[in-house]
Amino acid sequence: MVAMSSSAASSLRTRVIALAVSCAAAAAILGGVRAGGDAAAAWQWLHWIAKPLTTLLILAAAAWAWPPVSSRYRFWVVAGLVFSLVGDVLLMLPADLFVAGLVAFLGAHLCFITAFLGDSRFGTRPLAWLACLLVGGVNMVLLWPSIPPALHPAVAIYALVLSGMGAQAVGRAWGHAGDALARPARRAAVGSLLFMLSDSLLAWNRFHLALPLAVLWVLGSYYAAVWFITRSVAQDEGAIEVAAMRPGGTS
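Structure (tokenized):
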């Protein structure tokens, strides 16, 4: 069956990319952790090479996922990952490009929200929105005194959009519970919540206090976030096989 063979090829490709992503992510984290110790320059270069490479590999997994939930969904997720790649580069460079990186990731979150709106209404499941906005709001209140006043507007807008992305993803997953998009929607929701966690850790480490092994926690949760969002691009393999085996299914 063509549908099943295409799905199997996509699954194999995803596993290969997942292995490459794991290796690149481990190198990025190791380089970041060791950059302040002996042979700092070599470790720093490892971090600079492996960090964007990991996101690029994840982007490739999204672009090649088959069959996609929809071509529209894949387009906006890939667009969000392109913005994330730009943000990765801007934030890792020695220059102070924090605001530029923030804008790049703001673009990523807006793309992800646009992807989620393809099959869910904006603001769906108000309880999900209330919970995510509450978490984001409490985080902002706690961090506010530590954030430089000049960054208040940019950080506030970013936090609002980030919380909105998490809320839309959770509400979408809630709405798709039990249907063919249940698993992909759950993956997107998990990824979005992990993105909120990663950015919260980054903010606390940057503005409030230095977290032990911050690179490990921030990048680990970030790569998990974009990987789960990427894995939401493809339809559920079980649903594909069931549909293909039904009379009149794709063969």
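The mean pLDDT is 91. The chain has one domain: 69-245.
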